[in-house]
Amino acid sequence: MKSEFYDTLNRQVLALFEGETNLIAAMANFSALINDSLDNLNWAGFYLMDNEQLVLGPFQGKVACTRIPLGKGVCGTAAATKETQRIADVHQFAGHIACDAASNSEIVIPVFRQSEVIAVLDIDSPVFDRFDSQDQEGLESLVKSLEKCLFD
């Protein structure tokens, strides 16, 4: 059951980052944990806010776009709207930025410090409609745990 899977993963996140204060180190291990734990992924990682754009951060996967303007593509839209973007078919998303032609679906979750978006978690899959509402809820919970460990 997916909820149990994400509960287990959440306990791992809390244990892995207890006492960790370095954002880059935490994001690097978080990316590895997601990449190793979820099936049918081809990219998992972070883009960090830098002025009015997102800049590539720690990730697992193929070479990626280095900079994404705020409001552009799925990542830029998630950062600008401060809302998770769960896209069943990225080829139907207006303004999609194709860093990897093998990606067919994507979920992007904003990472907050207080009410400010400081990064986004970007997860891509070669499978269409890979992420459902349970994945979204589970992944958002993992990001909240990461925020709690780093910023509380």
Automatic annotation (TrEMBL):
Gene Ontology CC annotation, any one: cytosol
SUPFAM superfamilies: GAF domain-like
InterPro entries per UniProt: FRMsr_CS, GAF, GAF-like_dom_sf, Phosphatase_reg/MetRdx
Domain of life: Bacteria
Pfam family, one: GAF_2
UniProt GO MF annotations: L-methionine-(R)-S-oxide reductase activity
GAF domain span: 44-143
PANTHER family from the UniProt entry: FREE METHIONINE-R-SULFOXIDE REDUCTASE, GAF/PUTATIVE CYTOSKELETAL PROTEIN
Protein family per UniProt: Belongs to the free Met sulfoxide reductase family.
Official protein name in the record: Free methionine-R-sulfoxide reductase YebR
Organism (species): Shewanella gelidii
